[in-house]
Design a protein that fits this description.
Shape: elongated
Distance between the termini: 41 Å
Order of helices and strands: HHHH
Oligomer: single chain
Strand content: under 5%
Number of strands: 0
Length: about 80
């Protein structure tokens, strides 16, 4: 039978695997990698929509990637 601490540790590892992967990488290389890396996305979007979106972001001084990330998070959470 496992202790409650072991069970809790397994829950935390399952919830934040990237943190523990970074620790394993540190053990191997002695360099701590960035925990939250950005990933390039290759998608196809209607060119008119993209043009309008770029203009929208430029006029409001908004970073397009951050706005898209924000909207993706809202969609995932069901907002």
């Amino acid at each position: 039978m496992q202790s409650s601490n072991v069970l809790r540790a397994k829950q935390i590892i399952a919830k934040y695997p990237e943190v523990f992967e970074s620790l394993v990488e540190f053990e191997k290389t002695k360099k701590l990698p960035k925990l939250y890396r950005r990933k390039r996305l290759n998608i196809t979007i209607d060119e008119n929509i993209l043009r309008n979106f770029k203009l929208y972001c430029e006029k409001r001084n908004i970073n397009m990637s951050r706005l898209i990330e924000k909207k993706m998070i809202e969609e995932i959470k069901g907002s």
